Fold this protein.
Amino acid sequence: MGLLKYILRRLFTIFVSIIVVIIITYVLMWLAPGDFFNIAQFQASAGKIATLTPEQLQVLIKGFEEKYGLNVPLWKQIWNYLKDAFRFKFGPSFSNPNEPIEVQIARRFPVTATLAILAMALAVVVGIPLGVIAALKRNTWVDYVTMFISMIGSIIPAYLIGVIMVIIFSVYLRWLPTSGWETPKQMIMPVITVAVGPMAIIARFTRSSLLDVLSQDYIRTAYAKGGTDRAVIMRHALRNSLLPVVTVIGPQLAFLFTGTVWIENLFRVPGLGQLFVNAASMRDYPLLVTSTFILSLSVMLMNLLVDIIYAFLDPRIKYQ
Amino acid sequence: MRSKKGLIILFVLVSVLLLSGVINGQKEKVVSLPFWDTPGLVPYYWQAQHILAQGTIFEGLYGYAPDPKSLGGVKVVPVIAQSYKVSKDYKVWTFKLRKDKKWSNGDPVTAKDFEWSFKYYASPKIPDLPAWAGPLQFFENFWAVKSGAVDPDKLGVKALDDYTLEIRLSTPRYDMKEWLCVAQAVPIHRKTVEADPQNWWRPGKIVVNGPYIPVSWTPGKDMVLVKNPNYVGERGNVDRIVLKFGGLGIQQYQAGELDAALINNVAEYRYVTSDPKLSKEFHEDVMDCFWNGYQWSRGFDPIMDNEKLRKALAMAIDREKLCKDVLGGRALPLNKYWPDGNPIGDKLKGIPFDVNQAKKLLAEAGYPNGKGLKTLVFYITGGGDPVVEFIVDQWKKNLGVNVIIENIESGLYWNSYVWPSFSPDAKAGFTVMGAPMNNLEIGALFKNSDHTPWFFDFPTSARKRYYELQQEQDAWLRKDGGLTEADWKPLLEKRNTLYETYKKIVSTEPEKLWVAELTKSPTWYERFDELYEKWKAAKTNADKTNYWRLAGREIVGQEIFQNWYLNMTERARNAIRWRYRAVNRPFSEAVKIVHYGLQLMQDAYYMVPVYLAKAQWVQNPKLEGLMLYKFSWGPGFFNFKWLNLKD
């Protein structure tokens, strides 16, 4: 029962933290120079507002404020937002007055989640063995080559890797379509592109934490008891060395869940990233607050998940 | 009996379908094109400008047909309209509609559709209608309707019968036909909209009157349009259009996934023009509805009043070199608001590139070789701006003038530095200026250069006063008081002194069109007097305060006008006079005289053109009728009505 109680307590903390995050976001927007809560951005795109009389402009501003609920004091706006947000109602955004943000999110989230989970799975499936091989063959050419590759993977921007793949596999070889998100064939390149970064990180973490574990006393004991290489590593070393790796995977996955905008644009994957990326620069305040909400929520939930997985990996961890 | 009938109908239908397939005996013609990511298909929102009504899914009374020689590459043609009559004062427009036009579900398109749609857009049901983006703003009573003060039925639009539409305007408009081409001027299908006001526009539900029906839409990815079988009128032969958002255009084109792709940078341009196959499919055109350059910052540093300094800087930029070295041949040097080879541009005198003359002017301005001139600031946004770096470098090299580049966050930059009337925080210097036309209309022919007489071309002290008065006018909205006669005393005194000056202005201003606007009833003082009377009769304190506030705003409004009119340069006044002359004649006539005003605005050197971007793309050689979109969302492709795919 300890676990359930623990989860409930953590969920309550998450709830409170989100409220604080949203309040801070609002206050920051309110403090930011220029005007978030105003028709100014339409003025910017219009450049014609100058031809309207002040009275006409008042009518426009009033209508705009009414639609977006800006005609009440700030504390009330925050209250209204929170009230709706916890029921997953976010209202329309400036850049898309046609439909509520939750409709847009509902449509895009599955796509982003699929991409994130596939890419993470690939990163784990490739990254962990790479790390293990490098650790076991420490300081040999095998180690150097794998680590060099993983370093390259973390240095080169994923976007560039994507472009290079498109030019090779779509333009020259004509094996894969350049973009899209319906058939498995279309998913290959975006998934690899997203996976490269986390893959490199996972490989390095696995390597260093496995080396760490291999130098522990209990491993020596296991060998002394006559365990084979394979048995010792699989049963004793790997399980314990995965703890830090899980810590990395959680937040990484959370960020992937809110979309990887460059890659989505490149491969025309209709995910969340495209939706959220312009919110700040376009001063699309409903979208900005909502993307903050979604991102913080997913990071906090992921951390909770990581802590729960910890318990399964390491029986010594107790929930209090 | 009944089942037999059904069977016969079914048999006939099937044979017709089969026969048509046999007769045609051809594959479906599919065209894939790059497109802007679109938030939805509601035509009255500015965000839907590009899925434009004009020819693709909706159409209005007038629309665009391709015409390479005209402004924007389009000419205005009647679409649903057949003919029109306009009253002598250009306020009442009566349109006769074609009788053969249909909605995609088979309903006829009538004048009643237009009447209902326009009243719906104008009603408070759409509180956030971007009214500046369409013609409704000129309709009689529009603003009163939008604010909720007047019933939408009072809007100046009426179906006299099924195929006659009357539009009544609050002020004369000579370019109504041009305005009726934009997205906000198309009708929507009443029954579908009323059945589901939130979602009527979704593909699968939507009923349209244009040549293509949207059947699927994945935001951020693509939209599929199919031929509207009920469409009557000229059109190309394409059955299905797939619009794709995002991706690597040129690579998609090479992989055979797109029938056209825009070139986005110099690297792509060089690659395409050096490739033996792609170079044959390369096209380019000039984005002549734009100009790109810089404007002086909208702050209040008196150094800006130095005309010789402004002129010297404008003359010291080697625009040819900029286009060759920095923009890699993807732009044309531009030293006037419209380029050569264009009916307006051909009559404009450009700003010459003349370093010696610029040096001389700078010395005359009081800064020989840049000595004694404070460091100016060029505001930019985003990740560096090679064009600005080049300009700043030219000023340093050619004149010895120091300008530093300051990068600010984009929202702040556009909203507080580039587009507002004034930016009090801005230091002496510049921002980037790229001014487009949103659509064809006379006012837009000035491409925002009319900001020069509005906000720039008068002494800084008066500009500062202008800004303070604007603040004061806003403050009146929240002022407490107005309950006693004593509160009115200063207002009444001001009214009288302002009235004297106003009378002088009206009697001395030579441009009759301007005078007409200034004396149009109700004038500012008539409105003021009426508010005073209303105040006397008011019952509640809230009403009293409200009337007093409005009266205060009227007074400040007149102060703003007089401060502006009396302090502006004679050049700016002349520019405004030419603007009045231009907007008070039909579009084709306006095009002939608009250069007089443009020249005066350009010669103030506050808003300086530097280059003109080219649109470049590759296109399937079998594809015809692809229209370049040259207005403010451009470059891109639109108006797919004319697409034709050769076998």
